[in-house]
Amino acid sequence: MRDPHDSPPLPLDITVEGEFQYGPLRADGFGDFFPDDPAAGLYLPDDLVAGLYAWAGSVDATVNLDLRDRVEGKYASVWDRLFREGAELARRVAREVGPGRIVTYKGTVNGGLAGLTSVAWQGDRQLW
Q: Has this prediction a pTM greater than 0.85?
């Protein structure tokens, strides 16, 4: 539901997910977005914003390497690292946005089945 000024609502439930050529954050009714998008109203610290951008860029770069080289498992250790980095970034986002929002980490879409997960936090508390 949009407000009287036709602005989209602020996302309450946020997903952090690494996917080729998508913003690292998503929300139902909001789509994918970047961490410093003013419409999202997250106001994350600069180092966290930079970390999310770098992580998303690394996901894109690794997909491009996978496509170029086409060697099964060649970048498995990179995907593992990106998976762990994404989980830590999601946990940090949850801490920053506080207990009024749920942040779910879905992993790295392009990193194979080992890169998929579903872990959620509400503030500092892990829900699942």
A: yes
